[in-house]
Design goal:
Length: 185
């Protein structure tokens, strides 16, 4: 066998199994009459299976393969042969096959929309970098003689000077940084 074909079958295998189970076992519940169960299965369960498998395939594998759309009509044709649905009306079976193919393709389109919504949500939910908020100072309570010092600049050791004045030199700053470095290690 061709390696590419084998890889494609391995990727499609879970969806093939799910659709085979549903398309081959659900007609057992339909019976031979045209009752409500028949319509619920053919108009509800089978299309939802085709759409669901296509959506999950596209979201997981991120590729639009027409093969996943063909699985549902193929299994419906086989189950129609097994359960004698061709005898009643071949045109109905062909219409259902075409509609299941369209449902599979619709599932691929729905997966595109879901992926686009997720990417838009991820782009919009990127948080902005947090900036430290400055300490609030009540201007009415402070006098011109007191220097205004933010809480974040206060020294951890109460004996240290917690304000910097304009007379601070580069040597003073180096000493302060060296003291901070010693404290951290």
């Amino acid at each position: 066998m061709n390696d590419r074909f084998e890889k494609k079958i391995k990727v499609l295998l879970p969806y093939i199994i799910i659709e085979a189970i549903i398309f081959f076992l659900m007609p057992l519940f339909m019976g031979h009459s045209e009752g409500a169960a028949t319509y619920i299965i053919q108009i509800g369960i089978f299309p939802l299976t085709a759409i669901g498998c296509s959506v999950f395939y596209k979201l997981k594998n991120q590729s639009s393969d027409i093969y996943v759309c063909v699985i549902a009509p193929l299994f419906y044709a086989i189950s129609a042969l097994l359960y004698g649905m061709w005898r009643d009306s071949a045109i109905n079976v062909l219409v259902y096959m075409a509609s299941y193919f369209v449902c599979g393709y619709l599932g691929l389109l729905v997966a595109d929309v879901i992926r686009k919504k997720k990417s838009e949500k991820a782009e919009s939910s990127v948080p902005e970098p947090k900036r430290p908020s400055p300490a609030r100072v009540d201007v009415a309570k402070t006098s011109a003689e007191e220097p205004v010092v933010a809480d974040s600049f206060k020294a951890e050791d109460p004996d240290e000077d917690d304000s910097l004045d304009t007379a601070t030199t580069d040597d003073d700053i180096e000493e302060i940084l060296a003291a901070i470095h010693k404290r951290k290690s």
